[in-house]
C-alpha cells in the first residue's frame, strides 16, 4: 500500500503527463460516444495544422513550460484565464470576429478574478 498521494510521489511533469493523458482519453471517449469524429473527414490541411498547433503548442507545450519554470499556481491560473481572451481579441483584429457584450463581461470577470487572486488580504 502506498503511503503518499500520486501528486507527492511523482514529479510535476510526470503528474502533468498523467493528468493530460487521462483528460485526452476521456475526451476521445466522449467524442466516440457522440459521433464527433465524423467532422474530421472534412478537415483541410490548414485545419489539421491549426488543430495540432492548438493541442500541442497552445495546450501541452504551454503546460510543460509552466512546470519547467516552476511557476506558482496563482501565476499559472492568471495566465490560463487571460489566454482565451487574448486569442479572442487577436481574432477580432485579424479576422474581424465581433466583440460582443458577452466578451466584455468575460473580460471584466477575468480581470476581477485576477485582481482578487493577486490582492493581499488586509490585516484585521
TrEMBL record:
<keyword id="KW-0812">Transmembrane</keyword>
<dbReference type="InterPro" id="IPR000620">
    <property type="entry name" value="EamA_dom"/>
</dbReference>
<keyword id="KW-1133">Transmembrane helix</keyword>
<protein>
    <submittedName>
        <fullName>Bll5048 protein</fullName>
    </submittedName>
</protein>
<dbReference type="InterPro" id="IPR037185">
    <property type="entry name" value="EmrE-like"/>
</dbReference>
<feature type="transmembrane region" description="Helical">
    <location>
        <begin position="45"/>
        <end position="69"/>
    </location>
</feature>
<dbReference type="GO" id="GO:0016020">
    <property type="term" value="C:membrane"/>
</dbReference>
<feature type="domain" description="EamA">
    <location>
        <begin position="2"/>
        <end position="117"/>
    </location>
</feature>
<feature type="transmembrane region" description="Helical">
    <location>
        <begin position="12"/>
        <end position="33"/>
    </location>
</feature>
<dbReference type="Pfam" id="PF00892">
    <property type="entry name" value="EamA"/>
</dbReference>
<keyword id="KW-0472">Membrane</keyword>
Amino acid at each position: 500500500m502506498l503511503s503518499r498521494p500520486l501528486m507527492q510521489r511523482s514529479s510535476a511533469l510526470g503528474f502533468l503527463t498523467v493528468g493530460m493523458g487521462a483528460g485526452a482519453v476521456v475526451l476521445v471517449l466522449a467524442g466516440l460516444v457522440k459521433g464527433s469524429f465524423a467532422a474530421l473527414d472534412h478537415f483541410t490541411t490548414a485545419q489539421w495544422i491549426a488543430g495540432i498547433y492548438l493541442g500541442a503548442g497552445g495546450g501541452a507545450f504551454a503546460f510543460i513550460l509552466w512546470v519547467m519554470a516552476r511557476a506558482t499556481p496563482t501565476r499559472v491560473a492568471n495566465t490560463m484565464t487571460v489566454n482565451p481572451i487574448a486569442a479572442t481579441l487577436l481574432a477580432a483584429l485579424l479576422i474581424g470576429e465581433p466583440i460582443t457584450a458577452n466578451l466584455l463581461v468575460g473580460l471584466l470577470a477575468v480581470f476581477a478574478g485576477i485582481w482578487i487572486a493577486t490582492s493581499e488580504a488586509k490585516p484585521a
